[in-house]
Amino acid sequence: MIVNDDFLAYTLRHPEQNDGLNFTFPSGRARVEGAGILCLEPEVQQSNLSLVLSVGIHGNETGPIELANGLVKSILAGDLVLGVRLLFIIGNPRAVIQAQRFCDVNLNRLFCGSWQSQQGYEAQRAQQLERSVKTFFEASDPVGAQKLHYDLHTAIRGSVHEKFAVHPYAPKAIYQQRQLAFLAACGVEAVLFSHQPTSTFSYHSFAQHDAQASTIELGKVRAFGENDLSSFLQMKRALTELLVTGELVQDRVSDLSLYEVVDSLTKDDQSYRLNIADDLENFTPFEQDFCLAESLEQRYIVKQAGDAIVFPNTKLPVGQRAGLVVRSKPMSRFNFQ
Ligand SMILES: [Zn+2]
Questions:
Q1: Strand partners, 324
Q2: How far is the CA of 81 from the centre of ligand 1 (A)?
Q3: pLDDT value for 312
Q4: Of 86, 116, 138, 239, which has the maximum CB count within 10 A?
Q5: Rounded Cα gap, residues 46 and 19, in angstroms
Q6: pLDDT of residue 68
Q7: How many CB atoms lie within 10 A of CB 142?
Q8: Catalytic member of 41, 61, 217, 281
Q9: Is there a contact between 132 and 33 (Cβ–Cβ < 8 Å)?
């Protein structure tokens, strides 16, 4: 059984467990599908929504883990009445225990089958998570089921927009206004629209399962106990409403800053470096013609004043993404439905 309804504590005590523990809670029944993977089925479904809520894909991103674990705890204890199907995932338990981003390789680059070309714990984990998500979504109502996946993170560095979301690449570039309005209600300030398919967890659900999905960055990485959970209050309220009623709380989309990706930077050589301070915040704008990155192979010159960098990181192997160059884009130039 899950002592004190604390699935996080349970997972950290049994980080390798794979057998299915079944139990009931006041508003439904639950099954532990694997380490850190908990499927909850409500007794009374308020909407035909199936929600995947994932946290800790990067083990040291503890804020969202605490936030979501608290919500699940309230459901298991009977303080919240679950009204939707929920798959709660603590993505990388081993890395959580080690307080590391990952053990062998970045888990959030291994989905859409990319794990097949990798070795180690995260490769096995990506395969397992893909399987669980597939089983979960396939068991949803075949007629008119609404599939959602929110993958919650915190970023390595600070950000001009403290909370922001990354929307998966959509081939037809048509986006759901309801999703953006929900993100606004979660306290998200900016949305970055991906320019190409990726191997992230949220893109996987979007592309493989036709779910509406986002990667949501909720602030800066901190250790367990050091998170200011009050900064997640809007997110908590919106998720609570979603879990209980199946409703996507809506806020003003016009308050969001929207960005498109202009270029993806790749670490092309060991000599590769970014000409920015270690503590430069995500979305900090640059002047035109600024030499943002250089290596013995090439230089990257900023094309337009205001272009900014998101997720800069050069502490990774040659060939991997060293950052995204993004550009603000007015709402009128997006297609919504
Ligand atoms: Zn992360």
A1: 264, 310
A2: 29
A3: 94
A4: 86
A5: 30
A6: 98
A7: 8
A8: 217
A9: yes
pLDDT of residue 18: 66
Give kind and range of the element (H or E) at residue 215: strand 212-220
Distance 153 CA to ligand 1 centre (A): 4
Q: Which domains does the chain have, with CATH numbers?
A: 3-255 (3.40.630.10), 263-330 (2.40.50.630)
According to the model, what pLDDT value does residue 142 have? 80
List the one residue out of 310, 193, 189, 192 whose CA is nearest residue 253.
189
Low-confidence ranges of the chain (pLDDT < 70): 18-19
Q: Please, which residues have CB within 8 angstroms of residue 103's CB and are 6 or more apart in sequence?
A: 59, 92, 94, 95, 120, 121, 122
Known catalytic membership, residue 217: yes
Find the helix packing angle between 121-138 and 201-209, rounded to 10°: 40
Instruction: Say if CB 265 and CB 295 are below 8 A apart.
Output: no
Burial of 20 (0-12, 13-18, 19+ CB in 10 A): exposed
Q: What is the pLDDT of residues 106-139, one digit of tens each?
A: 999 999 999 999 999 999 999 999 999 999 999 9
pLDDT computed for residue 144 by the predictor: 83
- What residues have CB less than 8 Å from 227, skipping those under 6 apart? 62, 63, 66
Output the CA 145–ligand 1 centroid distance in Å. Answer: 28
Give the distance (Å) from ligand 1 centre to CA of residue 306.
25
How much distance in Å is there from the Cα of 336 to the middle of ligand 1? 27
Residue 16 has which token pair? 């390798």
Q: Token pair of 140, please?
A: 């949803």
